[in-house]
């Protein structure tokens, strides 16, 4: 049975993330990602975007010019593929002047040639349309955004989307699309914003999804399964949401520092999957991470002290896992933290230092653990019956603040799990050198 976070936890996370994003610089995508993330946390659709500069809708966008026949053909094919239109969103889609259609935005062509105006975007968000998305949509050769969220469109995503060379934003969220990950979206040359959340996509993710030059990747609330590709940390995206799927295996540990390799990511949501194994040490070297949610999985072992290197993090949630040992004191030094949740694990110790620095601020949640003498902890028999540390699979090197925090990125030290080493930037290993400890 799949678990869902309780509503009060999601509401708390929503408030924290909304505050975070209001304070964050806007991403390069045309759509405001702060609003998008806050909407995702609440399970609501994102707001409608503003049309691009110079675009118009209806007669204001050069109604006197004749529309190219292929654009008329494409829009009529889209209308024909809709079997139910309860709100009459497409009632104005009649006649050759496609720039007068409701939800259709026109502007001058990006290549400066041909017709004086072309269809630059379609926004049919929250129209409750039922039907499919036809292959003929690719005839809209100058389309820059396609927003169809919160409808009842289903079936497969057409392969012809790869032909939309100017498309930068594709929002198919909150629909009934199904099948494997739509690989055609990764062949759209200009795409920077991909939103497929709240659909019924299934199967494994192709590694190329994180090699694409995207600014935002929303894949949550589908039926994706298998392991999360190790290419995750090569993505240049600022926001990656993988929550509420069926992913298994471990959290990807390979991390390439800088040059887009995780260097820009600000929010990563892994919550409510079936992930196992350790919390990778390498997560502590994500330089820009502000929200990291690993809750509602089956992660085990100790939390790595490297997480204390996350100097700009505001939300860190590892609740509802199988983590053990003592909570690292260093985590309580995170100055920007607004929500630190380690609840419903098997932690055996939490220091007074954490109480002093975080408890007094009301941002620290450690209920449902195994800390002696604390209120709202697990029953003692439940703590004694827990399997324990999981052997050496989650080896942690003890000590003070990790050497890699803010250090020289040219040097690296790594701890590998299962014979697979990975590099941690900035640790004192000599100029350009690397030290690797491998655990069988």
UniProtKB/TrEMBL annotation:
Q: Which residues form the signal peptide?
A: 1-28
> Where in or outside the cell is it found?
Membrane; Secreted, Cell wall
Lineage top rank: taxon: Eukaryota
**Alphabetical list of SUPFAM superfamilies matching this protein:** L domain-like
Q: Could you tell me which InterPro entries the record lists for this protein? A: Leu-rich_rpt, Leu-rich_rpt_typical-subtyp, LRR_dom_sf, LRR_extensin-like_regulator, LRR_N_plant-typ
Main location group = membrane
- One Pfam family it belongs to: LRR_8
**Classification via SMART domains:** LRR_TYP
One CC-aspect GO term: membrane
- In this protein, which residues make up the domain named Leucine-rich repeat-containing N-terminal plant-type? 69-107
What is an annotated GO biological process for this record, any one?
cell wall organization
Which keywords belong to this entry?
Cell wall, Cell wall biogenesis/degradation, Hydroxylation, Leucine-rich repeat, Membrane, Repeat, Secreted, Signal, Transmembrane, Transmembrane helix
Name under which the protein is recorded: Cell wall hydroxyproline-rich glycoprotein
């Amino acid at each position: 049975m799949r678990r869902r976070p309780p509503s009060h936890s999601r509401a708390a996370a929503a408030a924290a993330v909304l505050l975070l994003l209001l304070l964050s610089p806007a991403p390069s995508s045309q759509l405001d990602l702060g609003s998008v993330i806050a909407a995702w946390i609440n399970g609501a659709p994102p707001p409608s975007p503003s049309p691009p500069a110079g675009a118009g809708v209806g007669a204001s966008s050069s109604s006197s010019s004749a529309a190219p026949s292929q654009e008329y053909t494409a829009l009529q094919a889209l209308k024909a593929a809709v079997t139910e239109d309860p709100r009459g969103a497409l009632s104005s889609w009649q006649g050759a002047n496609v720039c007068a259609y409701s939800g259709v935005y026109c502007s001058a062509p990006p290549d400066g040639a041909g017709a004086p105006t072309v269809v630059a975007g379609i926004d049919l968000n929250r129209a409750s349309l039922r039907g499919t998305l036809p292959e003929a949509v690719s005839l809209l050769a100058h389309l820059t955004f396609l927003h169809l969220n919160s409808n009842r469109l289903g079936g497969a995503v057409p392969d012809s989307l790869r032909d939309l060379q100017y498309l930068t934003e594709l929002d198919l969220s909150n629909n009934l699309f199904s099948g494997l990950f739509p690989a055609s979206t990764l062949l759209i040359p200009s795409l920077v914003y991909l939103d497929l959340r709240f659909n019924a996509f299934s199967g494994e993710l192709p590694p190329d999804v994180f090699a694409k030059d995207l600014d935002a990747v929303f894949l949550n609330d589908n039926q994706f399964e298998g392991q999360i590709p190790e290419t995750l940390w090569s993505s240049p995206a600022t926001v990656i949401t993988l929550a509420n799927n069926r992913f298994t295996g471990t959290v990807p540990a390979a991390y390439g520092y800088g040059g887009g390799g995780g260097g820009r990511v600000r929010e990563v949501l892994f919550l409510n999957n079936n992930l196992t194994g350790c919390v990778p040490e390498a997560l502590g070297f994500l330089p820009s991470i502000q929200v990291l949610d690993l809750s509602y999985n089956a992660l085990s072992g100790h939390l790595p002290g490297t997480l204390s290197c996350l100097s700009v993090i505001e939300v860190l949630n590892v609740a509802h896992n199988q983590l053990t040992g003592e909570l690292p004191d260093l985590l309580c030094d995170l100055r920007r933290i607004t929500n630190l949740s380690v609840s419903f694990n098997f932690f055996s110790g939490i220091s007074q230092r954490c109480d002093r620095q975080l408890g007094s601020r009301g941002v620290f949640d450690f209920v449902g653990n195994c800390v002696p003498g604390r209120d709202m902890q697990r029953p003692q028999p439940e703590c004694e019956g827990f399997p324990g540390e999981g052997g050496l699979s989650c080896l942690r090197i003890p000590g003070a603040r990790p050497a890699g925090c803010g250090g020289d990125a040219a040097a690296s030290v790594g701890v590998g799990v299962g014979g697979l080493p990975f590099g941690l930037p900035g640790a004192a290993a000599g100029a350009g050198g690397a030290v690797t400890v491998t655990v069988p």
